[in-house]
Amino acid sequence: MGLQNLPSVDEVLKDARIREIERTCARDLVVQAVRTELGVLRTEIMNTGREWSREHARDRVVMKAIRRLDTLQGGSLRRVINATGVVLHTNLGRAPLSPETANYIARLAQGYTNLEMDLEAGKRGSRYQHLESMLLSLTGAEAALVVNNNAAAVMLVLNTLAKGREVIVSRGQLVEIGGSFRIPEIMALSGARLIEVGTTNKTYLSDFEQAVSGDTALLLAVHTSNYRIVGFTHEIALHELVSLGRRLELPVVQDLGSGSLIDLSPWGLEAEPTVQECLRSGVDLVTFSGDKLLGGPQAGIIVGKKHLIEAMKRNHLLRALRVDKMTIAGLEATLGGYINGSPQDSIPVLRMLTRGRTELKALADRLAELIRDEVDNGSEPPKIKVMEINDKVGGGAYPLQELPGYGVEIEFGFDPGQLVHQLRILEPALLPRIKEGAIIISVRTLQSGEAELIPGLLRHGLEAFS
Ligand SMILES: *Cc1c(COP(=O)(O)O)cnc(C)c1O
Questions:
Q1: How far apart are CA 281 and CA 189, in angstroms?
Q2: Contact 394 CB / ligand 1 (< 6 Å)
Q3: 183-190 average pLDDT score
Q4: Cα 64 to middle of ligand 1, angstroms
Q5: pTM for the complete prediction?
Q6: CB 128 less than 6 A from any atom of ligand 1
Q7: Is the CB of 150 under 6 A from ligand 1?
């Protein structure tokens, strides 16, 4: 059934292109890739019964093995130009770091550091010391702890304070973030028992009061980061939950999700409680992400009461959730931006969220010119125009907020689906917004120097299938 034309492993290994790649790749990996691709083709032939000529079959195995090895050698992470206007795009790695932060990480990553050494005393230190004084100064908390991400932070809090006991949460706050973080699942994994109270749209303090038992370990408030319940609703104010916690001597924990350290309302974003405000309202612990509105590397930050943070530091689970030196370096540099007093200039996420309309319009005008110069030829040139658009915060923050921005719309005489695919596989990849018959490049999320790359990428993309 056509298998007689399947080349042997040795035959493929003799191919000049395979021998070329063998100069820069371990031989056993080359052999492995060839075997895998031969196997793939064998299965395909058996399933489809399609006839392959010997040369054609060998060619196909060679090419696919080379592609496999290229990915293996170069990794599969690619730079992506985010032209979607979604600032915190979880699929695109959330917060981009500033060049200063990236350089700081690179400098510390290239050598040894005092990660776990107290240089003053010449003794063993703790990796958790490094960020603590910065976080305490910025938030006013008694103590702080940094783990791998906010999911880990919530997990550590629940496992330390509520394992085998009950945690009360409002039904309106049982959030799911991006499919993989769900309060009920995290609760189950932590060993705590979830006690849901109230209804989807209304929860009162009396619901919490009635649910409290001798087994209650803590009261949890979860920020409904990525949705809003509107209409006939009632949710408990944080200070009310805090009073109840005080009265019953139960800790109150707020999972803030995308916790911000600055009030973004002067830039037209809805007022949302900052980390400092939550702590001031008397909450015992606040957890938030490092790579959402804070604008740093992936991390989970826990701030609050010292005795609770100390208990978490003694929990062996922390060992499995610990951050490495690059994360600590990235957070140090990011928090440094807040300490210097102008985070909206030094932290890319905040820069993008606070960019003024005049600046965005000017950038869109310039980009439109650059694109016209590059692709405005041929018999049917695309229609290029600058337009007002609405951007998004993203990353499960400010779900209803629209950020007025500018984009360059490029309208073709054809469906842009195939072009959009071509743009995604270029290096760097370009990810625009798609509209019927057109693509839109939002300029808000472009990083320095990226506008200049876009015209060339568009031309390559167009050439690839025209
Ligand atoms: C984003 C979010 C999380 C998960 O945080 P990660 O840092 O992605 O692990 C948890 N809770 C809330 C409310 C969130 O918004």
A1: 29
A2: no
A3: 92
A4: 39
A5: 0.91
A6: no
A7: yes
Q: Which atom of ligand 1 is nearest to the CA of 289?
A: 7
Structural domains present in the chain? 3-74 (no CATH), 80-88+353-463 (3.90.1150.180), 99-342 (3.40.640.10)
Residue nearest to atom 7 of ligand 1 (CA): 150
Please give the average per-residue pLDDT across 247-267, as a whole number: 94
Distance in angstroms (rounded) separating the CA atoms of residues 246 and 240: 10
Residue 291 Cα to ligand 1 midpoint, Å, equals 10
pLDDT tens digits for 144-179? 999 999 999 999 999 999 999 999 999 999 888 765
Assess whether the C-beta atom of 257 lies below 6 angstroms from ligand 1: yes
Best CA proximity match to 337, nearest among 4, 98, 69? 98
Eight-class DSSP state of 197: E
Please write the tens of the pLDDT for every residue from 199-209: 888 899 999 99
Token pair in block for residue 454 = 């876009």
CA–CA dist 338, 99 (Å, integer): 16
- 330 forms bridges with which residues in the sheet? none
Ligand 1 atom closest to the Cα of residue 226 is 15
